[in-house]
C-alpha cells in the first residue's frame, strides 16, 4: 500500500488559481438550467460536456427520454477508478423578488457567490474539476482513473438516471462513488446512502355523491371507513401493525452501532421551542432521537382529505376519502413488497374496498462504513481540516444513491461543499468562496487517499 | 264537541277566486327577498305586513338584530287558537342562466308558477291567507283564533327567531302550530318535529409547521393523532363508544312504534344503483332503514383535512389536522351535554390536546302524534284527498320547529304545499297552480277540524 504523496503543491496551485475557480463557477451559474421548467437544459448539458473536455476528460452526451446525461472518463495512475456524481439542473429561482442580486448573475458579494445552483450543485461540479485540474497541472496525472456522471433531472426525481445506470454498467464501473454534497457542519459529513421512499394513495369510495348529513345513520361515510382502516395499521403508540412490514429490515452491523453511538443527541428542547412541538413521538429523550430517526422506517400520513374542508359549517356524508401515505424505508425493505403487505392487511381487516395506488417508489441503500472510500474520505478530512469527518451511516433523504449502490455494487459516500447556510432551494442560494476553494482541496485529497491505499 | 261544518261553500269560493290567489302569489314572488344577500328584505317584510292586514289581521313588524319578524292576530269563533309559521325569505336565485324564465318574474307556464320562493315559502303563505279569506268571505268569521308568525331568516338558520320566541311567549301563545310545508307525495305528509344538529370542529396541532417527512419517525403527525382520536369514538360496526352519548335518548312511545311500522321500507336496491352505494351501514335490509334513519342519532365526519391534499406526491408530516363532526340528535339529547361528553371522552383517552369547538347547535324536538292538531290534519287530509296523511313522527331535517315545540310548549305539524318536483333551492323552482288551490282548501279544512274537536 503506497503512502499518499505530498498534496501541498496541489493545494498551493488551487490557492493561486482561486479567482479562476470562482470565475468557472460563475460561468456555470450564469447558464440557467431549471429542470422543472425545462429552461436552459440543452445549453447546460453542452456546457458541462465542454467543461469536462477542457479538463481533459473524454466526454459524451447521452440522449434520454428526458434531459441529457453527460459522462466523462479521465485515465490516471494506479489501478483504482473513482466515479463522481453530480447534477447540472437546478430548482426554479422563484420568488424572484426575494433575491438580493439576480439569481443567474452569480454576483460575488462579501466573499460569497450568490446564485441559483451556486451550491446545489454547480459548486460541487467546479470544486471537483478544480481538484482534477490542480492535480494534472502539478503532477501531470491523476492518482487514479476518474469517471464523471452528471445528470440533469435530480431536482425532478432522476427518472432517466434509473434506466441509464443499469444500461451503462461498464461505462460507469468503478471502485467507489463520490455522490452529491451533504450539508457540512464545521467538518465534512460523510453520508453513506439513502432511505427508500414509498408513496401510496389510499382511496375509499362508498357512493358516487356526498349525501346530506341527515342521512348519516344509513349511508356509509368514506371518511369513517378510511379512519378505521388507517387505525388498524398503526396504533397510538406508534406500533406498525401491518404484518411483514419489518420483515426485511437489516440488523445493524457492529460498526454501524458504533457510529450511531457517536452521533450526538438532538437538541430536543430547542426544537420543541422552535417548532412549538407538543412532544417527540413516544416522549423520546434527546439521546434516543438519532437512532429512531436514522434506523427506523416511517409510516406517515402525508395527507388526508374527505368531505367538507372549508371554514364554518357544511353538513355532508362524504362518499369519498383519500389518504396519502409516505413510508421512509430502510435497508432491505422493498417498496413493492411493502405495498403488497398493505394490500393484504387491508383485505384481511375487511377493507378490500379501499384502493391502493403507488405514486412513487425509490429504494433504500446503504454503503459499507468500513470501505476504502470511507477511509479515504476520513483521511482527507483529517489532512485538510485536522478533524474527524462525521459519518452518518444512514442518510435520511431521498437522493437516489441506491441507483449506484444497488445497481453498480460499489461503495458510495456523499460529501462536498454544501453548508447549512447555503440556502439551497431558497432565494439567495450562495456558496462561500472559501468553502469552494477548501472543497477543491478536499476532493484532491480524496482522490489521492483513495488511490494510495 | 261540535261537528265540523260544511266546507263545500268555502272550497267553492276558493275555486272561484283561483286567478286572484295566483296573482297574490305572483305579487309576493315578484318582490325578491334573499336573506343571505340581504336583498329586498325590508320591502318584503312591509309587503307581508300589509298583506296580513288586507286579510284582516292585526299585524306588527318587529325589529330584530337581523331581519324583521312579522306577526299577525285574527280573532275567530270557538276557544282555540292556531299559530301558523312561515318565512318570507328565499334562497339566492343563482345560477341565473339555468332558469327558463326570470326567477322574480313569476311567470305562469303550463299551470305552474315559476319563481324563486313560489313553493319555498311564499306559496305556503298565500295558500293559508287564501284559506282565511275564503272562510271570512263565506262565513264572516274564522273557526278559531289565528296567529301568524312570519320570519325572514329561515334560509340562514333563523338566528333572530331563537331569541324572539322566548321573548314573545304571550303574543305567540296558541293550542297548536302549523309549521312550514313538507314535501307532499300524493297525500299530505305530517312531519312532527326535527332532529337537533350539533356541529363540532376538532383540531389537533402537534407543531407550528409541517415537517419534511424524512422526520416522520420522530415528530408527531397531527393526522395520525386525529385518526386515533376519532377511532376511539366510533368503531367499524358503527358503535358509538362515547360515554353518555345515548343517555338522554327518549324511548319511543307505543304510538310512535305503530307509526314507524307503517312507514314503508326504503327502496334500497334502487338507491344502491343510483348512488353506486357499496352498501348501507351494517348491511341493513330495506325494512330496517327507516327505523335507523328516523330514530337513531348520527355521529358523522362531515370533513377531515390534514397535510397535503392535492394531486400527486408531496411528503410532509402534518403539524395540523382538523375534523368536522356533525351529529343529528334525537329527543332528548342536548348539544351542550353531547359536546361535554366528547370533551370528557378525548381527555379520558389521552387526547386532551385535541381541541373541540362548537360551530353550530340546534335542538331536537318531537310533537305528540296523538294531539288534537295531528287528528285535525288527518281528518282534513281525508276530507280533501280521501286518503290518510303520511305521519312522520321524526323529522330528519334541521328546520327549527324546536323553537316552538320546546319554547312555547305546543303541538306542531309541518304540512303544506311543497311537492317533490318543486325544485326548492334550485333553478326553476315552481308551484303547480292546482297544488296551491288544493293547499288553500287543505288549510281551511285544518282550521275547521282543529276548531271543531
Secondary structure tally, helices of chain A: 14
Indicate the radius of gyration of chain A in whole angstroms. Answer: 25 Å
CATH topology of the largest domain in chain A: Aminopeptidase
Give the CA-CA distance, first to last residue of chain A: 5 Å
Trace the largest sheet of chain A across and list its strands: 1-2-6-3-7-18
CATH architecture verdict of the largest domain in chain A: 3-Layer(aba) Sandwich
Protein described:
The structure is a homodimer of 453-residue chains. Chain A contains 14 helices and 19 strands. Chain A is of the alpha+beta class and 453 residues long. Chain A folds into two domains: 275 residues, Aminopeptidase; 120 residues, Alpha-Beta Plaits (2-Layer Sandwich), CATH 3.30.70.360. In chain A, the strands form six sheets. In chain A, strands 1-2-6-3-7-18 form a six-stranded mixed sheet, sandwiched between helices. Chain A has a four-stranded antiparallel sheet with strand order 12-14-10-15, with helices on one face. Chain A has a three-stranded antiparallel sheet with strand order 4-5-19. Chains A and B meet through strand 10, helix 7, helix 10, strand 12 and strand 13 of A and strand 10, helix 7, helix 10, strand 12 and strand 13 of B. Strand 12 of chain A pairs antiparallel with strand 12 of chain B, so a sheet runs across the interface.
Amino acid at each position: 500500500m503506497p503512502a499518499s504523496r505530498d498534496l501541498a503543491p496541489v493545494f498551493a496551485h488551487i490557492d493561486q488559481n482561486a479567482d479562476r475557480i470562482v470565475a468557472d463557477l460563475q460561468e456555470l451559474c450564469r447558464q440557467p438550467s431549471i429542470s422543472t421548467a425545462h429552461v436552459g437544459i440543452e445549453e447546460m448539458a453542452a456546457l458541462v460536456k465542454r467543461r469536462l473536455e477542457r479538463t481533459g476528460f473524454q466526454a459524451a452526451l447521452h440522449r434520454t427520454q428526458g434531459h441529457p446525461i453527460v459522462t466523462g472518463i479521465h485515465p490516471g495512475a494506479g489501478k483504482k477508478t473513482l466515479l463522481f456524481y453530480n447534477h447540472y439542473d437546478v430548482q426554479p429561482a422563484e420568488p424572484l423578488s426575494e433575491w438580493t442580486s439576480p439569481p443567474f448573475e452569480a454576483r460575488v458579494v462579501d466573499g460569497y457567490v450568490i446564485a441559483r445552483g451556486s451550491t446545489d450543485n454547480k459548486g460541487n461540479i467546479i470544486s471537483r474539476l478544480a481538484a482534477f485540474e490542480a492535480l494534472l497541472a502539478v503532477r501531470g496525472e491523476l492518482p487514479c482513473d476518474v469517471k464523471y456522471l452528471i445528470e440533469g433531472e435530480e431536482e425532478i426525481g432522476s427518472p432517466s438516471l434509473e434506466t441509464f445506470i443499469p444500461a451503462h454498467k461498464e461505462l460507469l464501473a468503478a471502485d467507489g462513488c463520490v455522490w452529491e454534497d451533504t450539508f457540512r457542519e464545521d467538518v465534512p459529513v460523510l453520508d453513506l446512502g439513502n432511505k427508500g421512499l414509498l408513496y401510496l394513495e389510499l382511496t375509499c369510495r362508498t357512493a358516487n355523491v356526498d349525501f346530506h348529513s341527515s342521512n348519516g345513520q344509513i349511508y356509509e361515510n368514506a371518511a369513517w371507513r378510511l379512519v378505521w382502516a388507517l387505525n388498524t395499521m398503526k396504533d397510538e403508540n406508534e406500533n406498525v401493525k401491518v404484518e411483514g412490514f419489518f420483515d426485511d429490515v437489516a440488523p445493524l452491523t457492529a460498526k454501524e452501532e458504533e457510529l450511531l453511538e457517536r452521533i450526538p443527541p438532538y437538541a430536543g428542547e430547542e426544537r420543541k421551542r422552535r417548532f412549538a412541538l407538543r412532544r417527540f413521538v413516544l416522549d423520546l429523550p434527546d439521546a434516543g432521537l438519532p437512532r429512531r430517526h436514522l434506523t427506523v422506517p416511517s409510516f406517515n400520513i402525508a395527507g388526508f382529505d374527505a368531505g367538507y374542508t372549508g371554514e364554518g359549517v357544511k353538513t355532508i356524508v362524504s362518499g369519498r376519502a383519500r389518504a396519502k401515505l409516505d413510508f421512509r424505508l430502510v435497508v432491505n425493505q422493498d417498496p413493492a413488497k411493502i405495498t403488497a403487505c398493505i394490500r393484504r392487511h387491508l383485505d384481511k381487516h375487511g377493507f378490500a374496498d379501499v384502493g391502493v395506488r403507488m405514486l412513487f417508489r425509490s429504494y433504500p441503500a446503504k454503503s459499507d462504513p468500513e470501505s476504502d472510500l470511507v477511509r479515504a474520505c476520513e483521511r482527507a478530512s483529517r489532512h485538510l481540516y485536522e478533524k474527524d469527518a462525521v459519518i452518518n451511516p444512514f442518510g435520511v433523504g431521498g437522493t437516489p444513491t441506491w441507483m449506484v449502490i444497488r445497481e453498480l455494487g460499489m461503495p458510495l459516500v456523499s460529501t462536498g461543499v454544501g453548508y447549512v447556510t447555503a440556502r439551497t432551494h431558497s432565494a439567495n442560494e450562495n456558496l462561500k468562496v472559501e468553502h469552494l476553494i477548501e472543497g477543491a482541496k478536499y476532493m484532491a485529497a480524496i482522490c489521492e487517499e483513495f488511490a494510495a491505499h
